[in-house]
Each structure stands twice: as structure tokens, then as C-alpha cells.
Write a structure and sequence with these properties.
The complex is a heterodimer of chains A (349) and B (296).
Chain A: E1 5-16, H1 20-28, H2 33-40, E2 43-54, E3 58-62, H3 69-76, E4 84-89, E5 92-93, H4 99-108, E6 110-113, H5 125-129, H6 131-134, H7 140-153, H8 169-182, E7 187-191, H9 199-216, E8 219-224, H10 227-233, E9 236-241, E10 244-249, H11 251-256, H12 261-267, E11 292-294, H13 299-309, E12 313-318, E13 321-327, H14 328-335
Helix pairs in contact in A: 7-8, 13-14
Chain B: H1 2-5, H2 12-40, H3 42-57, H4 60-75, H5 78-93, H6 97-127, H7 129-144, H8 147-158, H9 162-186, H10 190-198, H11 203-232, H12 234-238, H13 246-255, H14 258-286
Helix pairs in contact in B: 2-8, 3-6, 4-5, 4-14, 5-14, 6-7, 6-9, 6-11, 7-9, 8-9, 9-11, 11-14, 13-14
The chains are: A alpha/beta (349), B mainly alpha (296).
Chain lengths: 349, 296
Amino acid sequence: MESEIKVAIKNLYKIFGKNPAGMISHVQNGISKKELLEKFDSVLALNDVNIEIPAKGIQVIMGLSGSGKSTLIRHVNRLIEPTSGELIVDGKNVLEMGKTELREFRRRTASMVFQRFALLPHHTILENVSYGLTIQNISKNDAAERSQQWIDKVGLNGYEKHFPSQLSGGMQQRVGLARALATDAEILLMDEAFSALDPLIRTEMQDVLLRLQEELHKTILFITHDLDEALRIGDNIAILRDGLVVQKGTSEEIILNPADKYVTDFIKDINRGRVLRVSAIMDSSKLTKGVEIEKNMIIDDALQIISKSGLSKAIVTEDGKPIGSVEIGRMIEAIARPNDNTDETATYH
Amino acid sequence: MSWLEKIPTMDRQELRDLKKYIDFGFRDFSRAYGDAIEAFFDPLLYFLVWLEKFLINAPWPIILVIIAILAWVGSRSLFVVLGTVGSFLLIGYFGMWTDTMATLAIITVSTLLCIAIGLPIGIFMSRSDRLQSVVTPILDVMQTIPSFVYLIPVVMLLGIGKVPGLIAVCIYALPPIVRLTNLGIRLVDKEVLEAADAFGSSYRQKLFHVQIPLALPNIFAGVNQTIMMALAMVVIASMIGVKGLGVPVLRAVSNQYLALGLLNGLAIVALAIIFDRITQSFGKRLQKHLESEHGV
């Protein structure tokens, strides 16, 4: 998906410690995270992060806990100040903004959804959703009217007068989502937004997000530690380890060509048939006979069709026109778990 | 080696000079500024006198109705309202109405004063660790120093009367509201504050929409403690000319009037219980939104 870059994170470093600026040169000279901690008592949180996020897409940042992903997302609206680097949104460097400008940026351009919801416990659902609007000094009636639309859209109609504590976790996060959407910000920052929910509710919330995104086309930065979630909703995925981006790409690129052992371990247990699409493994030899498979179909579905047909090959189509073919053996090969060719067992912190 | 046997002491003459220096210094200070300071407290005095007169002179049924309404508004409990009305009727029946009204007046004014001073101090304290480390020991001193000790300079400065009494009460009753405001604001969930920041709240918006409302249960516990401590000071304040239930207690102590002391003492206890129940149930109602059906 080619489109303009909405958010560009450039050479971003974040070091926690007494003299973070002085540590940059050590980091650039290749000191390890462990060494930096032992020698200088400083924590390397982000190490030369470069990510370009296209407008209207969902960029997933993924990593285990401690990989720096929550720190990274907080740089976008400057809840955390970087040690060095640039953060360009719509061509403007967020890091150069003054206090008032930053406040306006947070009010209108980027809104956020939090892992543990962070709703105001003393406000009703309606008041919570309209929080972003009321602090912009929009009149109470206007704010309530606009908020009501979002409450309806996330499916909380009828709960306007409830307090957050009266709602289940999934419902509370719907409130969090509605609150973030109500300000009409173009950028949505989601910090492990669904991680605190149980699996069924999590899938349900992913559906809610994807459904809304079809209509809203926000630029979404989504943090998660759950690979299935990342593959399901991410247009692009960046994998973070110890503050370093180890791989960037679409879900298919990551699955087919994992950059290193860390990523390989990550993708080992996922159901590849539900992620990979036919287009990734087809070849261009044209067929004249057989069942037709759309090129964007996931392999799981394609296998069902092809096995019913009793043939070993199928025609791959794009917009109804044949563009190539795919063979059943190739499909099975693609979804089989790659063999572990290394004996060493790596450990990650 | 005499210093081993006897603790080194200041020269007697020097010590006398030092004390003299402090005494005269303060005397000069009070002569120079006493009137100005007294004038500064005039509005407070007028308010206190007005309230006392109103409470004493208004027909007792009206006062009783007002108190009953306040009790209802605070507690929403018929039991508390009936208990309150009953206690005040008994107080009146035993001839302590006027003194009780005077005590009520000074408790009200000193509580309001403590809130007006303590709340902002508590808020500033929660903002700065340095201020907290400065104010906390001062609060400790205010709470532990024997009240008679600070009665001396207050009386030297302002003489005997209602205002010094008020100040004495406030010195003792101020710390809890400061402490609990500070604590309450510091205890506000960091994640909620982060959310407020992320949506672009200004400092004021954060303070008034998030921090103070969420700290309110704690702040209210502070108000409750302040009222209790103000009541505890009633007798001591009566030593420097504050009218109220403390006066007969003091008389009872010096003349060994058991019944008089007991009755007035019990009246103070009754006031304390009433205030406590009303403010506590009000504080609990402030947390109603936390009662969950689902649990988080």
C-alpha cells in the first residue's frame, strides 16, 4: 500500500539514566544494553529507531515486554521526551513544538487508547467519551451530541449514564476507544489496547477496530506483544527487541523471511495458513483448466477449495482474470512450520 | 575532665541573655505589628461574631431545622438526623444551648479557615517533593508541640479573645487537611493522569477535572479530622477567652464541679459524634462511583 507518510520516526534514541545525552555516543559506538547498564547505570530503551508510518494504515509495533514498545508510542505524543532524534508528523517536528502547540497537537491530531483503559472513574461513560472535547472548551451540548455518535458506533448505546466500574473490561475499552475517536484526531495511538482483555473479547475488539477503520481510515499505531493480533490487524509490522527494530515489513514478508532467530522464534507457533495469501506463493505459469482462486485469499481457504476440486493445481485470479497458478504441494510447504536448523537455544530478556 | 561528669551547659548569664533577647525581640515585634496583625484578622472576627450571634439569637426551632437539614444532606440517613435532633434537644434541655452555639460558631469558622489555608498548601505540596520535605516537619511540630507553648506568643501578639483562640485552634487542626490533600492528590492513578495529558489537558484542567475530584474522598477524611481536632481544642481555647462549652468545663475543673464538667464534656462528645457521622457518610457518598458491579 503506497501512500504518503503520516508519521516518521527518525533516529530516535531514548536512554534513561543520569546523563542520557552523554550516553548517545557510547550507544552509537555499539555498546550493548547490558554493558551500558553495568558501566554507566543507564537503561537503553530505544536504539536508533526509524519507522515511517503511511497515512490511513495500521502500523503494528511488536515486541516482548521490555522491548521498548510502550516507550516508543509515548514519544509520538511526547508523553516521554526522547534523548535524541526526530519525530515528524505531517511534515512538522513534534519535538520542536512549544507547550501550547503540543497541547493542541494532543487535542486534535493524536489521541490515545490505553492498556488499562485509564478512564475517569468519577465520570459517567458519556462524560468520559466527551472528555477530549470538553477540555477543548466545546460546549457541553455539542460535546455530548458528538460523543453520543461514538458511543453508538462502539456499541455502548444505553450505558451513557453508567460509571466505568459498572462495566466489564471489554466494555470499558470500548469507552476508551470511543473517547479517542471522539476528538476526530487523525492519528490513533493504541498502547496494548486489547492486551488486558480475555481472548474472545480481544478478537471482538479487533473486529470493532477493523470495522471502524474501514470507514474512518485513521493512521493507527498499534502496540502489542501478541503476534496473532499483530498479523490480524497490521498492514505493516515492526518488531522491536531491546529497543532496536529488528525487522519491518508486511505480515507475509515477516513470515516468509524472518530476519533473525528472534523473529523466527516469534513466528514459530502461528498458524501460517491464516496469514499467508495465495499471491505470495503463486507462480506465473498460466493454466487453462481448474478452479479459480482469488490472489488475496488466505491459504487455509484456498486449500479447502483446491482439495474439494480434486486437482493439484488451481488458477490464481485478480479481478476475475487469471494471472498465474498455484500448486497444492507448494501451499502445504508454505504453511508447514519451518524446521529449526539451529541447535542453540536462544534466550531473550 | 569535668565535662565527662557533667553535661556541658551554657553559661547561666548567657542563657538568661538569650532568653531575654528572644522575649524582648518578640515583645518589640508585637508592639510594632500587633495592631496591624489584629486588623488583618478583623474580617474573620466579624464573621465569627456574626455567626455566633446568629446561632444564639435565632429562635431555637429554626436552628434545629437547619441542623436537621444539614444532617440529612450530609448523611441521607434518618437515623443520623434523629440522633442529631435528639442530642441538640437534650443539650438545650440541660441548659447548654448558648454555649453549644458558641462552640458551633468557632468550630465552623476554624474549619472553614483551615480548609481555605490547608487545601492550597496541600495542592502545592503534592506538586513538589521539595516543598513536601519542608512542610512535613512543620506540620509535625504543629501537631506535637504542647498547645500552651504557642498560646504564649499568640496571646502576646493579639491579647486574649476570639481571634487568638481561633488561631490556636487552627494551628492544631490544620495539619490533617494539608496532609490528606497532599496524600490524596499523590495517590491519584498515574495512568488516568497520563490519559489526561495525552488528550491535551492543561495543568488547571488536570487539577480541577481529575486530581481534586479523585482526591476528594481523602480530602474529606482530612476535613473530618480537622473538625475533630478543632473540637478537641475547645477547652484550651476557652482559656484565652473563647466562649463556648470549654468555659464551663474549665470552671468545673478549677472548682471540682463533677456534674457540670460531665454534662459539658458529654455535649462536646455529642457534637464530635454528630460531625463525624455526617462528614463520614458524606465522604463515603463521594466514592459511590467506585462501587462496581463487575469488579475491575
